[in-house]
Amino acid sequence: MPDQTVLLVEDNPDDVDLTLLAFKEVGFTHPIIVVHDGSQALDYLFGRGTFAGRNKADTPVLMLLDLKLPKVNGIEVLRGMRADPLLKQIVVAVLTSSNEEREKTEALKLGTNLYFRKALDFDGGVTIARQLASLIPS
Question: How buried is residue 67: exposed, middle or buried, by Cβ count under 10 Å (0-12/13-18/19+)?
C-alpha cells in the first residue's frame, strides 16, 4: 500500500509550522506534503507543473486546505478537484481563519468533509491534529 499522504495547502509559514508540530505531537507518521498556494495545490493534485510526473493515482488521503490563498483561492481548488473522479475521493478538511459564512457554505456545498477555524495556540492545533489523524488508519 502506498504511503497515506496528507496535502497541506497553507500560505502562512507560522500556520504551517504549527500544523506540522501539532501532527508530530500526536504521533502522526504519514508524509505531509506542503504547498503554499492554490495553484501549487492544483498542480500537485493533477500532476502538472513542478509536480509533472507524479503518479496521479497516488493521491493524498487527506487535504488540509486554507480558503484564503494566493493565486487560486481554496474554493477554486475545491471546485477543480471535485470535478475529477479520482480526486473527489480525497477527504478535505478546511482550516481557515475566515469568519465568512458565505465561504463556509460554499466550501461545504463543494464537498468539504470537515471545517475548522484555525487554532489560535498549540493546544488547539493539537486537538485538531488529533481529530484529523484519527481519520487515517496507521
Answer: buried
Task: Tell me the CB-side half-sphere exposure of residue 70, using CA atoms within 13 A.
Answer: 7
Q: Which residues contact 138 (CB under 8 A, 6 or more apart)?
A: 29
Distance CA 72, CA 78 (A): 10
Cβ-contact 77, 35 below 8 angstroms: no
What backbone phi and psi angles, to 5 degrees, belong to 52? -60, 135
pTM: 0.92
- pLDDT of res. 120: 82
* Residue listed under C-alpha cell 487554532: 119
CATH homologous superfamily for the domain 1-30+42-61+97-138: Response regulator (3.40.50.2300)
